[in-house]
Each structure stands twice: as C-alpha cells, then as structure tokens.
C-alpha cells in the first residue's frame, strides 16, 4: 500500500510538472505563439494550391503579423509570407493591392538582404513587377514615367550588384542586361518611338533628335550584351547570331531600317559559318565605350516617389503592439559599377 502511494505521488508530480510547462508556454506566447507561423504557412500554401487565394491572404497576413511580433518590424522571416501574399493578389487580379505589398516588400528587402545572389534575385523580381504593371496599364498618366524609372533603376542596380558579386565577365550579368533592354522598349513605346507595345499604355509624341537618342540608348545596351557574349564568354556562333538579331530587331522597331538590314545580314552570315569582315570596331561606330557606359547609368525618366510609396504602407504603418521591437538590420551599401550621379529619389529600391 505504501509502494502504491509513492507511485501515485510520483505520477501526480510528473503530471503537475507537465501541466506547469504547458501553462508557462501558453502564458508566455498566448495568441502570438511564433510556432503558429509554420502551421499558418502550410495552411496558406495548401489553400493557394487549391486556388483559394481569398482565403490564403488573411492566413498569410497573420503569419506576417506574428513574424513582426516575434522577430522585429523588419524581420527577414516575413519575406516568404509577403511574397506569397503578392502571388495571391496577382492570381485574383488585384494588381493595385499587389503593388502596395511590393512597395512594402521592397522596403523590408532593402533593410535585411545582404549583397549577393538573394539580393540580386530580389532586385530582378521588383524590376519585373514594375514592367508587368506597365504592360497591364495600372497607373494613371502622371505615374507612368515614375514607374518606368523604377523598373530601369531596379534592373540597373541588379546589374551593379551582379558585377560586384560575380565580376564583369560572368553570364550572371545577362538577366539584368536583358531586363534593361526590355525597359528601353517600354520607354521608347511610351515616347512614341517604334511600334506599339502590348496593353493600352499611352504614348507621347517625340522629335527626331529624341528618337535618335532612344535608339542610341537601346543599341548601346545590346552592344554591351554582344561584347559580353563574344569577347568575355566566348559564346558560340549561334548565340552571337542571336545577339545580332536582337540588335536588328531594335533597329527595325525604332525605324532604323538600314542598320536593321545590316545586323540581320551579319547574323545570317555568322550562322552560315562565314567570317564577318566587320570586326568589333563596327559596333563602336554606333556606340562608343562612353555611350555604352552611359547606357548603364541612372535613368533620366524617373520622378520623385509618390507619397503613397514611402516606407509606411498599409497596415504596416502603425505599431503592432508594445511587444514588437524594431530589428537592427544593417543596410548594405551597393558597390556600383555604374555611376549614381543624377539618380532620382527612389526610396523603395534596394540599395
């Protein structure tokens, strides 16, 4: 009987200990238990996979909220939740809301991402979003110019970051360079140079001198790509021919038919195994070294940030509660290859 009493006492003591630990955890975390984030994430991903994006969004917002409480206002842990939330907004066609969250996402990425591949990917995603927004024509007339400047600057900074990370002779520079070319197509289309772009983006009239300047900027970028592939990456003849075709497309689209015919002709010769009589100096006749460098510099089309795109956005403006603390994420300075002189204010761009 005494043995039974001792055993019962031990059982009760162990149960009490476990109950105390459970009670302590509940008391410490309560409704803001950070362990909920994984569960919320799994639920949101499942909802998205089923196409139930309207239900996924509040779940992702809750996960973001808990991340900010647990890890700080600028916590890196919230990035996947915000990115997934943007995906759901885009799936629902809520592009204005997606744009607001992109602005917030950019601010957090600016605070927490160090130099390197992850930062480059973030810059490229932001640039691609702004180009998509232009093609979808979501802006009022007065905001289009600023949107173009953002797209250009994100791509340019992605290029600078790529050079700092991979060096000047890496194929990893190409995504940013190709993005900058696409940005030039959008700018030219808006200014009334060349053929119509997809969507309903409005166009302006332009003078012959401005048309020439637009052509120069675009061809300088394409020459930079050609030189990287041909002289540093030692690309195949097929890739070099593709570069010439792109140069021909740009020349044709901007109304420079003679240049276009020459580029197309050279591409055919190169693809057929012929040796081009015109060497690397031929490109210099169109755009010299300084013009190529200037083409990679800051955009001249960006205006100042709208008040709506400052650091405080949406529900993130106010304090979540006294339990939240500001994280001390250090802002990494970008080691640019291109000049920043004359760069427009762009507070939501990752530095």
Percent in helix: 55-70%
DSSP summary: helix tally = 13
Total number of strands? 0
Unreliable spans: 19-27, 196-204, 299-351
Radius of gyration: 27 Å
Oligomer: single chain
SSE ordering: HHHHHHHHHHHHH
Please indicate the percent range of residues in DSSP E strands (runs of 2 or more). under 5%
Structural classification? mainly alpha
For the report, how would you describe the main beta sheet? Answer: none
N-to-C span: 75 Å
Overall shape: it is elongated
Q: Give the averaged pLDDT, no decimals.
A: 78
Question: How is the topology of this model organized?
Answer:
Blueprint: H1 2-29, H2 36-49, H3 53-71, H4 79-91, H5 95-112, H6 117-135, H7 141-166, H8 174-190, H9 208-232, H10 237-253, H11 257-271, H12 281-286, H13 289-295
Helix pairs in contact: 2-3, 3-4, 4-5, 5-6, 6-7, 6-8, 7-8, 8-9, 9-10, 9-13, 10-11
